[in-house]
Amino acid sequence: MSTVVGEMDQHDDHHHHAPSGITRWLFTTNHKDIGSMYLWFSFIMFLVGGSMAMVIRAELFQPGLQLVDPHFFNQMTTVHGLIMVFGAVMPAFTGLANWMIPMMIGAPDMALPRMNNWSFWILPFAFAILLASLFMEGGGPAFGWTFYAPLSTTYSSDSTALFVFSVHIMGISSIMGAINVIVTIMNMRAPGMSYMKMPLFVWTWFITAFLLIAVMPVLAGAVTMVLTDKYFGTSFFDAAGGGDPVMFQHIFWFFGHPEVYIMILPSFGIVSAIIPAFSRKRLFGYSSMVYATAAIAGLSFLVWAHHMFTTGMPVFAELFFMYCTMLISVPTGVKVFNWVATMWRGSISFETPMLFALAFVILFTIGGFSGLMLAITPVDFQYHDTYFVVAHFHYVLVSGAIFSIMAAAYYWLPKWTGHMYDEGLAKLHFWASLISVNVLFFPMHFAGLAGMPRRIPDYSVQFADINQIVSIGGFAFGLSQLIFLWLVIKCVKGGKKAPAKPWEGAEGLEWTVPSPAPYHTFDTPPEVK
Amino acid sequence: MAEQKHEKYYVPASSPWPIVGAIGLGLIAFGAGHTVIDMKNETEGWGSNVLLGGIAVILIMLFGWFRDQINESMSGLYSKQLGHSYRQGMAWFIFSEIMFFAAFFGALFYARTIAVEWLGGAGNNAMTNEVLWPGFEAIWPLTETPGGTESGAMGWLGLPLYNTLILIASSFTCHFAHVGLEKGKRKQLTVWLGVTIVLGCIFLYMQGAEYVHAYEELGLTLDSGVYGNTFYMLTGFHGMHVTLGTIMLIVMFFRVLKGHFTPESHFAFQATSWYWHFVDVVWVCLFIFVYIL
């Protein structure tokens, strides 16, 4: 896509090279340090949220109530969702953006490096508060990650205020992170790096950052209204005062639907980098990929009410949201076809990043199709709030977003650490994850179609077999991720030296600098032709 | 940017302030949460102390961070590119603020055109009205809620109208100050900036008087139904933004007195001015949708 000419001065000898000790991490303005902290934080949160999923799957292993009481079960489903969305997937993407975007566009660092550090360090505090609320009297949030009113207002525990304020500061962190990304892309590109030469990861993050800045404040508004309804006597979501609980869902999903694209657009960028690299071909249809991403982002503002077909809307609105939702499959289809066309007659090799990217394309498409089924209003009345929905969004978020993050980690680990990862261990991780993720989530489709509801700690005995299979898949998937942890630690500590460009077909500025990438990548701008 | 070839990049040195800011926000969130919980349960707790501590930490952070920033800027460390980054960052921040207000405007529109109408029996909701809220009439302003809470409604003539004129005028005076700065006319800058600050303070004072009037004479309170909710949340958040904007203007005023800013380089002033215009535009929308219509 882009090649570098001219000289690059990679050694920066003035006042700030990598300092040592704890203050390096506390005071840093370096995009690579901050990126690493984001990635480690997100992985820790992935394990925390994952262990909550293990509690859920252990309880659901058999019908009846065995291990935890229903109120605690509800807290687990709620906090599992919140942590995975805001603590695992989003920070992982921000970490990747921090690491890769400055390198990909030939910038020295992010545009606003101090704010960058601020946005990272808010997160540990936000999640400490959220997790601490679980130990309060009356328990933590138990109303689902979507915190529908009146569950989060009239019927929630005392600790709801802590949930609200922790979401507030998470939002501040995300908005600052997104402003940083968008300004970096607009303002820090090297000479010659025009918009239509940017790698797709940069493009997709550009659009993601716009979505974040547009909708995180709406989430802040929603939690504020929950706070005042619960603690200050307002009645935004209370019919007795002229409000409406359905209004909560409108405001929440106006945030929530763009949010789910925030969690998938950067994946599209990652996969669009990896598939060409291992197919040894240029990406098919670069500009159509850009336009498709923009179209998906634009449509994401017009489809929010497909999450609430059963909650009471005029038929006209149901049809409008149904058709708009189905329209999204067009640009998404463009992307999937482009990835397939990129592989067509390429000389493909199957290193681990490629395996995860391929699994992404197939499994994300399955998740996309079940989304299309859910988009159809009349049939959604059957699927709504069943395990079919759980299967759908885990296909797009786990075997979609998380798999793409894994692919990205394997793809760029050599660049980050200067060592090659252990390919054998990586393949083990891939196959274990691939098989277990399908054992875990595929049967949920059937449970849902047969009528098993979400977020209930008990179920009818007819679902026992399916739930046992699902739980076994869940435990296996959880354990498989420990292989990844082991592999990353091993790779950071040592291993085969990685060349500047370990992947034969890879393109982009990040492969023109040595591995590991120097502390300050570009001191003067590289020139891009 | 493409035209600035081979300019050396500027990356700011590491700084303790971001982590201090994160600690401050953490304390504020934790303290505010506990304060609210204590208020609800009517218990004495340490929440408000943590909250105040957090605010103190944030103030120290702001002071320290801006001091470093101003010193670096005054010693000519910054590049033109960084100036672009700051301006774009501020513009996107204002966009995020617009979306925050959009959530509350959205709530206002939804409550007014859908929720209240449906409770009154519009569309296919005749039975909602008949069975659940018999006798409820859909009117706006909602002076009697379905639950039976009564309140007065805020008119738009008089105080709100004067306030609108004051805030619009302050947008112009702020602009005159900015023009003065760009033309190097320091006196014009100082005077008009001072006038803007005075107008901002008058606005805030009158807004306070309006709240007293609403609470004591109209019986319009934060908990008197969705009309009161949207009224106070929208005007309240707007008032908080005006307060912040006024503080920013006051800081600019003292920096101007100290001789800061040049016609070419005055990001902080420009950002403050943008922010002030933004709160002004929000007010105009408020005046139309909350007061008049």
Automatic annotation (TrEMBL), chain A:
Its main location: membrane. The keyword Cell membrane applies. One of its GO terms (molecular function) is cytochrome-c oxidase activity. Keywords: Cell membrane, Copper, Electron transport, Heme, Iron, Membrane, Metal-binding, Oxidoreductase, Respiratory chain, Translocase, Transmembrane, Transmembrane helix, Transport. It is found in: Cell membrane; Membrane. Residues 25-529 form the Cytochrome oxidase subunit I profile domain. SUPFAM superfamilies: Cytochrome c oxidase subunit I-like. This is Cytochrome c oxidase subunit 1. It comes from Pseudidiomarina piscicola.
Automatic annotation (TrEMBL), chain B:
The keyword Aminoacyl-tRNA synthetase does not apply. The keyword Oxidoreductase applies. Residues 5-293 form the Heme-copper oxidase subunit III family profile domain. CDD domains: Cyt_c_Oxidase_III. It is a multi-pass membrane protein. Its EC number is 7.1.1.9. It is found in: Cell membrane; Membrane. Keywords: Membrane, Oxidoreductase, Translocase, Transmembrane, Transmembrane helix. SUPFAM superfamilies: Cytochrome c oxidase subunit III-like. One of its GO terms (molecular function) is cytochrome-c oxidase activity. The chain crosses the membrane at residues 9-30, 50-68, 89-111, 159-177, 189-206, 231-254, 274-292. One of its GO terms (biological process) is aerobic electron transport chain. Belongs to the cytochrome c oxidase subunit 3 family. This is cytochrome-c oxidase. It comes from Pseudidiomarina piscicola.
